[in-house]
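Thread: "does anyone have the structure for this chain?"

Original post by V.I.:
We have the sequence but no experimental structure in hand. Need at least a predicted one for the grant figures.
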Amino acid sequence: MRIGIDARLWNETGVGRYIRALFRYLPHDQEFVWFLNSPTFETLEMPKNWKKIKCNVRWHTFKEQLIMPFFFYKERLDLLHIPYVNFPLFYFGKTVATIHDLIPDHYRTGKVTTLPWWFFNIKNIAYHFLIWVATRRTLKIFTLSNDAKNEIVDHYKVNPEKIVVTHDSGKLEDTSKKIGSAHTKKPYILYVGNAHPHKNVESLIKAIEIINANRHSGSPATAGLIESAKKDAIATLQHDEELKLVLVGSDKFFYPRLPKSKYVEVIGEVPNNKIADWYRHAQALVTASKMEGFGIPPLEAMSVGCPAIVSDIPVFHEVYGDAAVYFNHLDPQNIAEVIKKTLANKRLLKEMVELGYKQAAKYSWKKCVQETHKIYESSLGLRSGK
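Reply from O.Q.:
Generated one for you, tokens below.
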């Protein structure tokens, strides 16, 4: 079988990780054609039976819809995997697609874009149309959680049997236990991700302001977990010691819009092979998302012994179970209280570390890709392994 994968989003964050996992774990003895843009095309080495095609076409554009089908048809594919919501309208070969989430369905205001309002509306309509077409024309749809599956079924009236849940993983590309030197010296809680409106980073900033405003008010001493490479050591912070919120991530549009605070430090992008150090030094990983399709950073944190304190939303309960502590993401006061109480409870923190290791181990990129590959084969009427 000859399978094509539209891998132009290789260097993006969440989707890029998913594509790179496909590249790492798909079998090398079968034919795969990878559609790439520069500079990935020039630097990526292919196994013997694989082929790469250079196509410097920007996604989410009209040009993409007109040009990409020619690349796909030229390769005479048995199956094409579209790993994002840029489904090719004018390609009528056999396809499978990945719908990571339906977040744009819930955020249609001007706060989610820097585009002119009229143009944003056009793109939003196009997005929904592409999703609708993908749910009708694909042989199978992959998604990342049962929560996301239920949304797709509900919003687009899809037969549940057509949707396959293949969970992402939180396994870091490099879990070296070397402790780096580029960390803030003050105790900190960590956020990893972009600052799109559904991430609700503003509430985390309000919460860190509340925590520090109450430092001298006689509130319980804040305790934190610093998990060293070789010792699961618990360190206690003084109640008057400043706690920072470190934001790891970047985007050109939404990070600059965040409110400023002396208790917030924006680090920007951190390479995958160095992010583990930031997790290990943190008192906890925090995320206040209003919705997600899955949620990789808390699993990454758990995999290296960093506790996770997260939003009380269904998908997070599905993915993290009892290994995380949950707060009301719509209430900065509650976020602050839950963070303080959690960091003050050394026994709970130690339990979270132990449960976190076990929870993170349940998810594997290799397993995700193996399940994906089985769907490729069944979609083409092949028995597994043939």
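V.I.: this helps a lot. The chain has a mean pLDDT of 87.
O.Q.: and The chain has 13 helices and 15 strands.
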